[in-house]
């Protein structure tokens, strides 16, 4: 299938290069790829490119390019899936996938590639099978300590357990040496939702789309059985009805092939025996019908009307402005926000927004040379041309837009029951594209 | 040998592929294939490989076919997109003769495809969008209710936005046209000029069916007086007026005032063409053209000058008093002072033509102002699924048909057929098919796509001689209603490179036509079309100079498509 595989940094420096078929003809394929990528005309897609007799297909993952070349006409979906799976696998073994971790673990990466691909054909990508063959250890930059709380934010007081884990807790190598049993066994479960919303200029809702995933990262020895319980009123599709209330509804749901769905119908419990590493347990989509009101609305000011006691983090409003804006004067309601003018757009950063609060900012712009509003025509109060749609990007911790919650996460049948494993469950919504038209 | 999950699996496949005893024995061969399909321990890569191998298997009977499809049903629900797409392709190819099964599969794959289109991974999103476009060629209404998923968001890269705009343009129907047009209208004022222009062209595409609304939107856009917008809108108007003459009035009212905002060559050419052809409806057309004539010396684009010459001569025919003077000045400049030979030649041609006399000029230059039938011919009838089924789930839809053609030409020239021996999968290409079908399948790659050679005109005598010497290879009857319009039919056939030797006049009873075509291997197809007066069917008889059933079938499907299209238009 694949002839060569290489990983380039964001500037085009080759970090890893592996030739499976030896048919590169003596050319520097990585260099060829990077030159072609940077020289591509604007309307051609860089995902699949062609040069001479080979196709280059690549993905971008955390600012690295993972590229595979092939000379056959094979399925793009399989190739892209392989590249994503390789990215996840390398991330599992090295802790996280970045230029630094790759350069520290070059030998490990080559060993993994050797086992996964043979002459360009995929042998296996399952971490279970690979465990038996990989001998090299991952090198981490500093030893991990759960008690290193210096970088943790201030939301520790409300968690169920007395300890908090910083968000980088999950980014240590999954498959560390077998002899080191003092590492705590942990499992991290994330319910992550991406919210994509389009609001028209008259306030009506044009499009709402929620894509959700339940992701599991397990450091437990394999063979442990796990049961994940979801909200009982969880309904799939428009016609199903459970419980007495309106229920929590999604349009479609799909599961990983290793999930056992016997108890799903009756009690909404998923059973699985997860391998070590990262796994997407369930994916669901919901559109057009959110049970809760939208998190943000823009009048002339920004307002968030959820119940108080909740917070949004890292809210950023991006508003393109007419061309030729020269100055900006502002009045903001709180000192920790900041707004600046850059690249023809206004960026207003609000690090933390309390639920139920209303924030306002007054911005006055000086635009010399802007043509006056057209004197005829129906829309005399239309905004000037170039005052583009406002887009918000934010994170909402401990909140899911569809209402889906994980009730419990139970582990049974642990082969080596030395330490109680820690279970971390997190719910998170973040914005994919939240656009409000003016 | 790819590692497909366990030793047993490898053994099974080896048996199926290499053992001549098993291949010879149909029943044992079938059993092995069944076991291969039922293997449960394959991971997603193994499943994709198995689905790929099975593409080359030809089931013997209908029940065997449905047996296999039932077994493979669970693959369509897999969580791996590669497996789902591979299964879809297999279904589409195996069920070639059952279009309702194909449609059913495409309905089932709608969900996974839409999920892939909204995936976090941009590359997956792009590949899925290309496949959605491919499906829309055959089933235009397939995704119409999910149009919202194809709205662009600001953070997407440019190439994805372009694909989404194309998809929106193709899935428009009566229910969603309002919202889609509003959304596209929003994109037309986007910051990125390329994207805005693509959106405007898309509106132009939709305007062929929903003319009034689109013309209104485009006229509003002209009011913004933005250069990159105005030039594209005028080009869209030019194309639209040719295909939909009913909007000419509205366009002519919108045009005055644009000339101040256009600076680039394409826009100027479009504007000048419109002024020339429809100048009598635009009050100040001569004065706009006069501006161009004044500045012709500083005009950098020769194409604009040529267009200006033609337009001014046309306008002179309808408004002689206003144009006479500037036409004279323009001709003088082009003949005496212009350095570009093409422009000079054209000026000279028009001058000599005018010397001959005004009637001659009118005869030559007064072409039709619009050609609505061209629009109907251009939108080829929904192409059957079988024409692209073998390209599904490969790199072909991702590149697009045009680019793929250039790529495969380069590759073919360099390697000949030798590259096939590299890959292990092709090394066993012959063995997977049992002997009876081997002959047919080996031919299939050659004649899958019928390439008819254009411009091969046979003389009438040669046609008659060949016709009388051959036997009828195929006869078929197609439903037909009403009269035949020979010109339209002839033009339609010419588009697909089928030449007309002779055709009866419209309305004659019985109506007959004789057609000829030649493919790139030199095989001739001679066709007779016969329409009796009282029948509602058209009889087709085809004679082939070399007996090859695959090419004959392909030729028949092309002919049926064209005749079917024309029949639909007229009825």
How would you characterize this protein structure?
The complex is a heterodimer of chains A (438) and B (571). Chain A has 6 helices and 26 strands. With 438 residues, chain A is mostly beta strands. The longest helix of chain A has 19 residues, at 76-94. Chain A is globular and about 60 Å long. Among the domains of chain B are: 1-140 and 382-411, no CATH class; 460-568, 2-Layer Sandwich (TATA-Binding Protein), CATH 3.30.310.10. With 571 residues, chain B is α+β, with helices and mostly antiparallel strands. Chain B has 29 helices and 5 strands. Chain B has a 5-stranded antiparallel sheet with strand order 1-5-4-3-2, with helices on both faces. In chain B, α14 (227-243) crosses α16 and α20 crosses α21. Chain B has helices at 7-18, 20-24, 26-38, 44-54, 62-72, 81-94, 99-108, 110-117, 122-138, 158-170, 177-187, 193-206, 211-222, 227-243, 248-254, 265-277, 285-294, 302-318, 320-337, 341-356, 358-365, 372-378, 396-399, 401-415, 424-427, 435-447, 460-469, 486-495, 549-570, and strands spanning 474-479, 499-503, 511-518, 524-531, 537-544. In chain B, β2 (499-503) and β3 form a beta hairpin. The interface between A and B is large, with 66 and 68 residues. Chain B: Its main location: Golgi. Chain B: Belongs to the adaptor complexes large subunit family.
